[in-house]
Amino acid sequence: MINHLIVGPLLLPLFMGTIIVLNANQPIFRLRILGLSSCLAILVITLVLLFQSVNGPIQTYVLGDWPAPFGIVMVVDRLSAMMLCITAFLALASLAYAARGTDLQGKNFHALFQFQLLGINGAFLTGDIFNLFVFFEIMLLSSYGLVLHGGGKLRTRAGMHYVLLNLVGSSIFLVGVGILYSVLGTLNMADLAVRMAQAPAENAALLKAAGLILFAVFALKAALLPLCFWLPAAYGFTSAPVAALFAVMTKVGVYVILRVYCLIFSDFAGVGAGLLNPWLLPAALITLAVGVAGVAGSRDLKRITAWLVIVSVGTLLAVIGTFERNAIAAAIVYLPHTTFMTGALFLLADLIGRQRPKAGSGLVPDRPVERPVLLGLLFLFAAVAIGGLPPLSGFFAKVTMLMMVQGSAGAPWIWGLVLGGGLLTLVALGRAGIIFFWKLLPADDSETGPEICRAPVPVHMPADLFPAALLCTSPLLVVFGGPITEFAFAAADHVINPVHYIEAVLGPDRSLPLLYPFGGE
Amino acid sequence: MEWLVSACFGIMIACGVYLVLRARTFPVILGLTLMGYAVNLFLFLTGRLHTNLPAIISENQARYTDPLPQGLVLTAIVIGFAMIAFVVVLSLKALGELDTDHVDGKQEAPPS
């Protein structure tokens, strides 16, 4: 029995996006209702998939009923179900925030948003490496539109770099996929893993080159140093709901690195085994250090948050870079927390910035904001969660990660950088909070300098605050910490051992070449 | 023929990389286009070099070329074309908004 729900997260945004494009001239509230109902439906579908995956096997959906190595398969295991769920929830909150006015700044916001979801969901679901390229392109093309949404010089300039870099990245991706296909003769990821295990030593150099070329592309997507410098400008200057949704885009890169290098280049992969082991951990640690420096050095809350995205990627990949089951499980615990909290901080930065006529979200004293207690408490909440202080989820996630990497050789570095980074993050966010809520100019200050570049946007506090508050799921992640950790370990079991994935996609016994590469018993 | 084809690919990629590293949007777009062509050629070559062989399996033909790279390259061409069209429009928009075609949006110093 095929589970048709699996293609739901793809077909639904595709159809809804098309409907919205065709109705682009309708009143905006109809488009908002269409977009929000689509996001809500995707959330429900992904939750069902998540609950099915908790106790169930890895599910596959064979498109067009072409058998697995030849046709394209969609694969839902625990990790991809969780990523889908995170995306859907973040998308719902971002779109709810955008529906408060951001979507009026330019055309076709809602259609682009749906196609963006199609691309992200596709990248999480697909089990075919060329199909992954196609979904990356869908994701990127809509993200180009969303980054530039609203226009303005800063956005255009940052968007230009983002687009050019990703176009080069796409070309390189195709070269990597081309090498893999020409040597192994397949594009299905499970089949690639099987054939990689059987590949003769004479092809080792080509296969390793392909793996590292692909890593360069995924590192660009995940914003790993030295390919991370496009991110602060692109995320810092774009509109807040888009930046909040993009908090999950770098996690697409993290997910793909985890998927490809634990499946195709796993420990069973013969000539390609352990390809990334010498690279990922150092690169991620340097990314983490540079990200923290960026957080400490930024003079604007949006930029701080954008650098926090890089810190989060660095932390995740440093822990994943040990390539141990327990560490990967801890990274899976950290993933929803960091995605939701950076998303929430982007929305909060925008709410604060909109009410400060001179400085915006810059770290300069300005007039007091409306409802400082509510907004300030929410900001404190987000800062505590991101910095990793108890009693919120950041603390528990970081403790889990630090405990689980203890056995690895890089443990002292990870401990030092994660803890030191957390401290500097707290200092930076604390400084921002002090300037925003305590160092105030008098409200009736009539002396408005020439630096006013835009009229403050009126904010309707409770309603506008709701989406940001929605993202503050941190206490829930603590309350349900036990089940989430159990789930993460179960998910890591499926990720770290490619046999499960291969047998789910290709059928039983096809993973035997991995276990017995020389045909022995 | 291997030498000729691989030299073609190498020269196209080299020219593409050189142009992409230029500071003006026009050469950068030309470079991206060139890299796109080179990559499409490369994808086509992943099916190995053959002459006078059909991409269709039939009973009359003992040998055939791999039809999958041709399908892949078709997809890659369509996507690449769309991306180039987009970046052309974007650079025109940037030229209009920033008053310069420098990729960093910097105003050049006036000629002395």
Give an overview of the whole structure.
The complex is a heterodimer of chains A (521) and B (112). With 521 residues, chain A is mostly helical. In chain A, 69% of the residues lie in helices and 2% in strands. Chain A has helices at residues 8-22, 28-55, 78-98, 109-125, 129-147, 153-184, 189-198, 204-222, 231-237, 240-246, 249-263, 277-297, 301-320, 325-354, 372-387, 393-404, 411-437, 461-471, 474-479, 481-496, 498-506, 512-515; strands spanning 59-62, 73-76. In chain A, strands 1-2 form a two-stranded antiparallel ribbon. In chain A, helix 1 (8-22) packs antiparallel against helix 4 and helix 2 runs parallel beside helix 4 (109-125). Residues 449-453 of chain A have low confidence and may be disordered. With 112 residues, chain B is mostly helical. Chain B has one domain (2-51, 65-98). Chain B is built from 3 helices and no strands. Chain B has helices spanning 2-20, 25-45, 68-98. The radius of gyration of chain B is 19 Å and the shape is elongated. Chain B starts with a helix and ends in a 14-residue tail after the last helix. The mean pLDDT of chain B is 86. Chains A and B meet through helix 5 and helix 6 of A and helix 2 and helix 3 of B.
Number of strands of chain A: 2
Kindly estimate the percentage of residues of chain B that lie in beta strands according to DSSP: under 5%
Please estimate the helix content of chain A.
55-70%
- Multimer state: heterodimer
The number of helical runs of chain B is 3
Structural class based on helices, strands and sheet pairing of chain B: mainly alpha
Low-confidence stretches of chain B are none
Biggest interface goes to:
A-B, 28 and 34 residues
List the helices and strands of chain B in order. HHH
The helicity of chain B comes to: 55-70%
Strand content of chain A: under 5%
Query: Could you describe the largest sheet of chain A, including whether it forms a barrel?
Result: 2 strands, antiparallel
What value does the average pLDDT of chain A take? 86
For the largest sheet of chain A, list the strands in their spatial order. 1-2
Principal-axis shape of chain A equals globular
- What does the average pLDDT of chain B come to? 86
- Compute the separation of the termini of chain A in Å: 34 Å
